[in-house]
Amino acid sequence: MDPATASQLHSTSTPRTRLPGASSVYSIACRREASTRPSPSSTRRRMSSMRSAAALSLSRKSASGCCVVIICFRLRLGLWLCNGKLEAVDSPSYCVLRSVSCVGPFVNVQKVLILGVTASGKGRLGFDLARRLDGEILSIDSMKVYRRMDIGTAKPSAERRREVAYHLIDVVEPSESFSVAAFLERANRAVADILARGRPVIGVGGTALYIKALLYGLFDGPGSDETIRNELRQRAQAEGPARLHAELAAVDPAAADRINPNDIRRTIRAIEVYRLTGRPISSFQTQFDAGLAHRGDSSTENTSAFSVAKPTTDGWTLIGLRRDKAEESHRINARTRKMVESGLVDEVRALLAEDRPLSQQARAAIGYAEVIEHLAGRLTLDEALEQIKINTRRLAKGQRTWFKTFGNVHWLDVAGDESPEHVLSRAESLLFQTK
User: Fold this and answer.
1) Could you give the CA distance from residue 135 to residue 112 in angstroms, rounded to a whole number?
2) Is residue 409 within a helix (H) or strand (E), and if so which, with residue range?
3) What per-residue confidence (pLDDT) applies to 277?
4) I want to staple 7 with a disulfide (CB 3.0 to 4.6 A). Which of 54, 77, 202, 289 is the partner?
5) What is the C-alpha separation between 127 and 161, in angstroms, rounded?
6) How far is 295 from 79, CA to CA, in rounded Å?
7) Dihedral of the alpha carbons of 99, 101, 102, 103, in degrees to the nearest 10
8) Would you report the helix, strand and coil content of the chain in percent, each value rounded to 5?
9) Mean pLDDT of the chain
10) 58-75, pLDDT tens digit by residue?
11) Largest Cα–Cα distance in the chain?
12) What's the confidence (pLDDT) of residue 310?
């Protein structure tokens, strides 16, 4: 049987299989529901992709036998054939034919989370993966929730948003605050809705607090005290956020390392907790992390090119992108320049001219806080540009610290000259292989 014949998907009224032998590539035919039938051109593209994959599977058969997986596009049932044994598996909305090892479980790709520091390339990988899986993207970014804050938050282009559905982008006004609890409520609703429609969820983001809440629930710290908060807000306005952040660093250096100096809200919360309890907020978070470790979700480094990402206890499969620091810094600098060239200053000026003032969260966003200082005459444009780069690198450092607490992340080390297509291929291999 030639590879092209072996990979054909036939439109039949009932599922059909042919099992010519354990050493052959198996042909599986599955009926598509009329409501999910793709266009003829779309079908031809996917058939071509499957023929290529079939040829690849034939060339890579192992002596132990051939295991071929064919999962039909947007069907909720997949078939796993291993040495003549036919099994039903939970299927992602994906069309693939691949030769894989016959050992271990088929990885769950209904919920995939792509994480990484800022400018790591996670947005591109998430988009490419969503297109390939016919999935929808859940944005996990505390600043992309704000409308009209587009350039400085590196939102996906209008063209990308026409191709792939994005959730939790442009959901609140810049004058409003947005808490992690509000994010979690909306995120859980979005995930349930996407899965109910038979599509996989591709989470993409770098806001570690949001990711942690999505994976493990909310961290319950001590209560609040409005008297303390009002005093600290007034001090931040009178003395500037840097002075407040320095006070936090004196009592809780671990928290100060994680919190951006411009993030007044989180700085105030950390100082408030210390004043109320006499303990740094980082100690409460350490206890929370210890609870995760007890559950078996403590962080484990997994960098083997041939291993599989293990789902978390809530079913998320985590893939992390990681670059060396020199490449990371280069990408941050390039992105900052591009933002300014694309009109970041005009975007901030327009936001400041709106009737309702920006919330503290929106004003503290990297890129916006520095340009606000420039427009107020306290920084030149070049100084603001340099400060954006410095603060973004500081953010990346804090993200790396946070990500060390996440369990079951499969890290992909990405080279500077590695193409997005190759990164996608590596991610696919990770999702559709077993140990």
Assistant:
1) 10
2) strand 409-413
3) 85
4) 54
5) 9
6) 32
7) -150
8) 45, 15, 40
9) 76
10) 333 333 333 444 443 333
11) 79
12) 44
Residue in the block written with tokens 């500077």: 416
Indicate the pLDDT class of residue 282, thresholds 50, 70 and 90: confident
Distant-in-sequence contacts of 120-123, Cβ < 8 A, 24+ apart? 120/206, 120/321, 120/322, 120/323, 120/328, 120/331, 120/414, 121/321, 121/323, 121/331, 121/414, 121/420, 121/423, 122/204, 122/205, 122/206, 122/321, 123/154, 123/156, 123/204
d(CA 58, CA 53) in angstroms, rounded, equals 9
Q: Can you tell me the mean pLDDT for 404-408?
A: 80
Name the residue ranges covered by the structural domains of the chain.
Answer: 3-100, 111-220+286-431
User: What are the beta bridge partners of residue 318?
Assistant: 113, 409
Element (H, E) at 321: strand 317-322
- Residues 103 and 325: their CA atoms lie apart, in Å, by 36
**Averaged pLDDT for residues 247-269:** 88
Q: Is 75 exposed, middle or buried (0-12, 13-18, 19+ CB in 10 A)?
A: buried
pTM of the complete model: 0.65
**CATH match of 111-220+286-431 with 3.30.470.30:** no
| Chain centroid offset of residue 6 CA | 36
Place of tokens 């007890």: 294
Query: Is the pLDDT at 388 greater than 60, yes or no?
Result: yes
Q: Report pLDDT for 220.
A: 61
